[in-house]
Amino acid sequence: MVGVLEVKDLTVEVGGRATLSGASFQVRAGDKVGLVGRNGAGKTSLLRVLAGDAPPAGGRSTIRGRLGFLTQDPRALRQLTDLTAMEHVLSGRGLDEAARRMEGARRAMEAEPSDTNIGCFSKAEERFAGLDGYAAESEVRQLVAGLGLDSDRLDGPLGVLSGGERRRVELARILFGGTDVLMLDEPTNHLDGDAKTWLMGFLRDFRGALLVVSHDLDLLDEAITRVLHLDDGEMVEYKGTYSQYRKSRAADEERRRRLADRQHSEIKRLSDLADSMRHQTAKRARVARSLDRRAERLASGAVTGVGRGERKYKVRFPDPPRAGRVVLEAEGLGQSYGGPMIFDDVTFALERGERVLVMGLNGAGKTSLLRILAGRSDPKNGSWRLGLGVVAGYYAQEHEGIRAGKGVLAHMREASDAPEPELRALLGMFGLVGDVAFQDAGTLSGGEKTKLALAQLVAGRHNLLLLDEPTNNLDPPSRDAIGSALSAWPGAMIVVSHDAAFVSELAPGRVITMPEGVEDRWSDDLIELVALA
Q1: Full-prediction pTM beyond 0.85?
Q2: Given 165, 295, 441, 518, which residue has the most CB atoms within 10 angstroms?
Q3: φ and ψ at residue 504, rounded to 5 degrees
Q4: Residue 280 CB burial class (10 angstroms; 0-12, 13-18, ≥19)
């Protein structure tokens, strides 16, 4: 295994703002490195630069060996409508092209069995066999089983898979590819507990170079041996697991706070002494100017940004407008995308202030159900209607309402006609402050897109929220703040989530299990199933 990632004096800019300045580091074969930092620190932007998807603002990075890069956004796979999921996974090792060449050579040989055509077929078959092509489909089915995807989902087109299924297929393609350098951006999103356990084992055994961004603390503790902390354009390296990093980082922050206090005290002492001498004799005035210069030099090199990475957000959803007693009614809903029914005969009603959790394995139709209720797609069977005075807000797990080329503040204006200061205050409540308001929304990190989408919901004054994995991509402080805000909100909610802590805080009253559409009362005994469903 020869995988190596080398970074030298690298600078990364997003929206004209430097998120990394002059960083140098290496990730060699056998290294398991976690890249951590708050939402918006620039982790995703750094991975895109390292993968060659975006240019650096300075410096360089070099990858020796084959790269496998998992992005946060699986939406691009929707465009690959001509491919089956199996074909897409096989492309990770070039087997799709090798199979096409072998088939073309076989047809040419059968049409004209000349020495040339026979030789071409022999070479094509030799290449296909050299890539373990004859055992590949069996290997792929074992791989996707580990990731919790039913094997029969591989035989259908990519376009009909759910967002969680597409992400598993893309992760399977990258892991199947036999790459030397793995860069994974939030690889556990949409994975259930068993699939996470399988992935942790795979990453522990991986012999190449691994760089992973994740807010899944279990993954970081189990699979990595080094941490790169990114914040305020600076990268600091820590050896050990995520838990060891947290202890070391806390000690560093405490040292920085003490140093900042000492520096502040010394700057104040020098300034006060200079002020006391400033208007006395000429000699004392010269001493005062010298003290001013010493204070300025000390201030220019003083510690800044202490503790920013642990910033806590306070989020509040405004009380919803009044709605009728029955908020939503669904009767006999069913959905299909040209094949078998994903679900059928789902019937339920939602009353004002109720919270319902939708559970089910990936591909059971959870997202499809929410998209129907949000008016984003039409059901194959059945009908639904909103109650009197109901204004529904939809949070899509793939951020499909956030478009590249349009600014953050412009997205907020689409959600509300409130004045700009109010909209910017809402963005600030979610930590999207300063010039981020004018940044192209397409350049935001996954966590920042989540915050923008939630800020749009707040601006829209809804009384029914349809939330599809609303805590994906959030750092722990942001997840806690948004979980608390939604828990305290008195409106009606239908929620899909694998986040057990979030669901526990939300305390839903009922559960709908897909694809059967069976209703049941919520019980704390079900919390263990949340991460598995």
Answers
A1: no
A2: 165
A3: -60, -45
A4: exposed
